[in-house]
Amino acid sequence: MKQTYRNRRNKSRKNLKRKTRRYRKNKLGGHEDEDLPHYHLLIKSARGSTHEMYERFVNSHLDRNIDVGTIQDLQNFVIDRGLNTDTTGTPQPFTLFWKGKKLEDSNIKLRKIVVEGKKLPLYKPNEEPIMVFLNKDIGDPVNFEAHDIDWRDPDTPGRP
């Protein structure tokens, strides 16, 4: 097939198309404020499916309008995605666990959570996902041990 002048001209324009930031971000992966310390958390629902939560940040940055990630963010994600539903699809009260320890106080920042001497991993999805258990399946959540808190963090409330 013989190329006409018009086809050659369009082809050359296509090759000259500039790669914009949006193009690079969509094609190469990433999100806004990728340069800041952040988490990509995996959450396993009560029915067994695993979902990656949108990025949550370690620290607040008022100049970029970024809030620090808390356990409340995890709870909101579970409720919004319907990860706390039983087999009939009815939302149920739930408790979050990581590495077998209960995540209880919704105001605790994610950077303060310590289980077995380890913190949630930064930048990559956690190998051990945060588990959602329905309270009707596990009984009273008070009977489970909660996570430790990193007291070295200067923003920890009630810090000695």
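^ that was protein a. below is b, sequence first then the tokens
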Amino acid sequence: MAAQHHIRELRDEDIDQVVAIWHAAGVARPWNDPLKDITFARRDAHSTILVAEIGNRVVATAMVGEDGHRGWVYYLATDPQHQGQGLGRAMMQAAEAWLIARGVWKLQLLVREENTQVFDFYGKFGFRDTRTVCMQKVLQP
């Protein structure tokens, strides 16, 4: 049986734990500075980082935001020691609730093409491949 968790918004004292989870879960990438991403996500009311905690320990994360047209989820991650306990599902539900409370009606996420093991997970939430191509241009290195 999984331990009881509590989901809330990120606090300053959580940052080191969150970055460690992102690395351990494999969602961090060398070209993305996690501290810069965290600071940017917390800059205004259009985005936040949700965390699940058990006791005083952060065990899962989801960065969620909206761009005026769609909601987005990034950095959905669970500490590998706590995977398989429903925390990913709980974080997605919390992210959806955060967006719905703001009137957002459409949710998008990006999945790396090689990350095939999560396709079924997201499919259970109703996500589907939209057969679109994501293009990117880096404005500031």
